[in-house]
Design a protein that fits this description.
Blueprint (H helix, E strand, L loop, with lengths): L1 E4 L5 H7 L4 H10 L5 E4 L17 E2 L9 E3 L9 E4 L2 E4 L15 E7 L2 E9 L4 E8 L2 E4 L5 E3 L8 E5 L38 E8 L2 E6 L2 E7 L3 H8 L9 H8 L8 E5 L6 E10 L1
Antiparallel strand pairs: 1-2, 2-10, 3-17, 4-7, 5-6, 6-17, 7-16, 8-13, 8-17, 9-12, 9-16, 10-11, 13-14, 14-15
Length: 283
């Protein structure tokens, strides 16, 4: 099932005409300066088949299979992702965000609302990746009237994964807000306690009723609050501002959608990265 959503500015109009079909929604969206888009509501994974420990954490990666995982906008895991020595790894070629060949971002196919997400990660020298949360699958129409998927990162926050010492993105942004564990391009992770490339790091993200906390190597490195005036202000000061990228601003300003829930995922940025000990606890 697909559900068409519209920008905040056109929400009242959309509610008034929702029973009349999608054309009015599309018109309202376009008049609001944001292209009409669709949130693709695909079938979700049943969590009852996954192992839960005594602390309530669900192991969403068993170290052997991609059970529950698929590519963003796909019904399978792209072949550039593999399982090696109990880790999810991406076979990068240094292609950046081009997502060449059979690549692309991956998601665990269940939407979470309030949760603690834990994982361990390491990268090759000068590598870049990211962890997404509250993600949606978003499509818009191309010039031929065909559905095309928008990038996952315009719908959700990103916990940056990076070799801080050797990747150039580390030196861009403001005050280190593109270094590892940062809220990408918005809030820097402090203290910056990353272990060097080739070594394992612990990552953790907590989301509870709009409060978000990033942890790196067992330290709280940042905290912020979604769906607040301050959140909107941060978006306006980022690469996702209303002027620079209206669709991204609209989606991120209401990230998680009407139910404030979304997918967890890992980014294909063209570089070699490993993830393991991946688990989530619903709050």
């Amino acid at each position: 099932m697909k559900k068409t959503l519209v920008p905040v500015a056109a929400l009242a109009l959309a509610l008034a005409v929702a029973s009349c079909g999608g054309n009015n929604n599309k018109k309202a969206a376009e008049e609001g300066g944001v292209p009409a888009y669709t949130v693709v509501n695909a079938e979700q994974v049943d969590l009852s088949g996954f192992t839960k420990d005594e602390d309530g954490f669900i192991e969403i990666f068993d170290g052997k299979t991609f059970n529950g995982w698929r590519g963003y906008g796909k019904d399978r895991v792209p072949s550039k992702w593999a399982i090696v020595d109990g880790c999810i790894t991406f076979n990068g070629t240094g292609g950046g965000e081009a997502q060449e060949g059979d690549g692309g971002d991956i998601i665990f196919a269940h939407k979470f609302k309030n949760f603690i997400f834990e994982f361990e990660w390491k990268v090759e020298k000068a590598a870049n990746s990211g962890v997404f949360y509250l993600a949606q699958e978003i499509t818009t129409k191309n010039d031929k009237g065909e559905d095309e998927y928008e990038p996952i990162y315009i719908s959700c926050p990103e916990y940056q994964i990076l070799d801080n010492e050797n990747h150039p993105d580390s030196f861009l942004g403001v005050d280190g807000n593109r270094k590892s564990a940062s809220l990408y391009d918005m809030i820097p992770a402090k203290p910056q306690n990353q272990h060097p490339y080739g070594e394992w790091n612990k990552g953790k993200i907590m989301v509870f009723q709009g409060t978000v906390v990033h942890y790196q190597n067992d330290e709280n490195v940042l905290e912020y609050h979604l769906w607040t005036p301050r959140w909107t202000e941060m978006l306006q000061n980022s690469k996702f501002s209303e002027e620079a990228w209206p669709l991204a601003f609209e989606l991120l300003n209401n990230c998680g959608g009407e139910n404030h829930e979304g997918y967890l995922g890992f980014q294909d940025h063209g570089d070699v990265v490993w993830y393991r000990n991946i688990r989530v606890k619903e709050l």
